[in-house]
Amino acid sequence: MSLINDALKRAQQTQQENPPPTPELVFRPVERNHAPRRTTLISVGVTLVIIALLGLTGLLIWYLRLPQSPLPVAARELNPSPTPQPPDQTPRTPAAPAVVSVTNSIGVVEPTGPTGLPTAPHTNSVPPATPPVAPVPPPFKLQGIFFNPKTPTAVINGTPLQLGEWLKDSQVTAISPVAVTLVSATATNVLSLSR
Questions:
Q1: Which residues sit opposite 66 in a β-bridge?
Q2: 3 state SS of 124
Q3: Contacts from 117-124 at CB under 8 Å and sequence distance 24+?
Q4: Whether the Cβ atoms of residue 173 and residue 190 lie closer than 8 Å to each other
Q5: CA dist., res. 184 & res. 195, Å (int)
Q6: Prediction pTM value
Q7: Phi, psi of 112 (to 5 degrees)
Q8: In this structure, are residues 77 and 164 in contact, taking their beta carbons and an 8 Å threshold?
Q9: What is the DSSP string of 84-111?
């Protein structure tokens, strides 16, 4: 071990007495590569792609802001009769008897009943019976349209209906992407989707 230490000390002394020479610094001019040309092509390409994307985005926004007009739908008549008749679901009401008035000897007009005899005024405390009023059906509410040109379907009051089907006393005669037409014996209802 002491031999190694002695050898190390001698090497260190020799290095301190004779230091190694330092090489001279040589300055060379910088060589230019073709890398800036590639960078220019890449930056021009990226710029063109960004301009194209901005143009397409502007066209998309312009198209989406156009007013939406409903598609024209030609309705065809399923029932050749002028007004559709519901399938025997309408209640029949008897005709009211004719009321005729008679003038008595004093000149007072008295109503008469169906027998032609004057009716006595109501003197008891019970009011005369009024005919029952038919309940008003709830209004139709259009809840959705599944538009397919071959078999369009509308959901009205929770019931899916297609062309020609009946809902209460009304028949579905037309279904477009935004509206449904119901025709009854007395009225035509056009229901549209609320926005």
A1: none
A2: coil
A3: none
A4: no
A5: 26
A6: 0.32
A7: -115, 160
A8: no
A9: ---SS-SPP-PPPPP-EEEE-TTS-EEE
- Name the strand (E) or helix (H) holding 43: helix 35-64
Q: How far apart are CA 161 and CA 172, in angstroms?
A: 7
Task: Give the whole-number percent of the chain exceeding pLDDT 90.
Answer: 22
Q: Do the strands 179-183 and 188-192 form a parallel or antiparallel pair, or are they unpaired? A: antiparallel
**What is the spatial distance between Cα 115 and Cα 100, in angstroms, rounded to a whole number?**
10
CA-closest candidate to residue 137, choices 95, 170, 159: 170
Label the pairing between strands 159-162 and 179-183.
Answer: unpaired
Give the residue carrying structure tokens 């709830």.
Answer: 138
Distance CA(184)–CA(133), nearest Å, equals 20
pLDDT for 191 beyond 80 = yes
> How far, in Å, CA of 71 to CA of 117, rounded?
65
**In contact, 185 and 171? CB cutoff 8 Å:** no
Comparing CA positions, the residue from 60, 71, 66, 82 lying closest to residue 147 is 71
Q: Please write the tens of the pLDDT for every residue from 8-58.
A: 888 888 888 877 777 788 888 877 665 556 778 888 899 999 999 999 999
Tens-place pLDDT, residues 128-160: 667 776 666 568 889 899 888 889 999 998 899
